[in-house]
Amino acid sequence: MNIYEIVTGKIIECLNQGVVPWERDWLSVPFSNYCTKKAYQGLNQLLLTAQNILNKKYYSCPYWHIWKQVNNLGGFVRKGEKASIIIYYDSKIIEVETESGKGEKEITEKKISFVRYYSVFNQEQTTGIPEIEFNNNEHKKNCKDN
């Protein structure tokens, strides 16, 4: 199953349960990465909301971790907790070597786009990681290699 099917499936599952995931009382603080404090953008806000609804979890904490961040911070994911999915999409320029009709090699630049998905856990699904205030930067020193 590819990421497009996963995302579509989550949204359809919410709609089948009579819940429209984009119509809700939004948190005053958007869902964000714990270490970077960067708010998740676009579809990720909708995805996290939909998955919370489907899992019947309504977290009051807006902070999320990837597995590696939980480990780096010395924390643990509680037994039985399920991860939610976020997506990361970007593009980059790569150099492509081609051969011209005369047998000469040419190097051209090509833009490629990609999408990846990551499993994340809400702060409330973990133990051993200190809670933070939205404007507190102290936690960043412990979030290496996130």
Task: Supply database-style keywords.
two-stranded antiparallel ribbon, 3 helices, alpha+beta, 146 residues, 4-stranded mixed sheet, single chain
Structural overview:
There is one protein chain. With 146 residues, the protein is an alpha+beta fold. The strands form two sheets. A four-stranded mixed beta sheet has the order 1-2-5-4. Strands 3-6 form a two-stranded antiparallel sheet. It has helices spanning 3-16, 43-54, 67-72; strands at 32-33, 63-66, 76-77, 84-99, 105-122, 126-127. It is extended, with a radius of gyration of 20 Å. It is 22% helix and 30% strand. Mean pLDDT is 82; it is low at 136-141. The protein starts with a helix and ends in a 19-residue tail after the last strand. Helix 1 (3-16) crosses helix 2. The protein has one domain (3-142).
> Gap between N and C termini, in Å?
26 Å
Unreliable stretches (pLDDT < 50, length at least 5) are: 136-141
Number of strands: 6
Total domain count: 1
The chain-level structural class is: alpha+beta
Provide the gyration radius in Å: 20 Å
Question: What fraction of residues sit in β-strands?
Answer: 25-35%
Order of helices and strands: HEHEHEEEE
Shape descriptor: extended
Strand order of the largest sheet: 1-2-5-4
Largest sheet: 4 strands, mixed
The percent range for helix content is 10-25%
**pLDDT averaged over residues:** 82
Number of helices: 3
This entry's quaternary arrangement is single chain
Question: What's the layout of helices and strands?
Answer:
Elements: H1 3-16, E1 32-33, H2 43-54, E2 63-66, H3 67-72, E3 76-77, E4 84-99, E5 105-122, E6 126-127
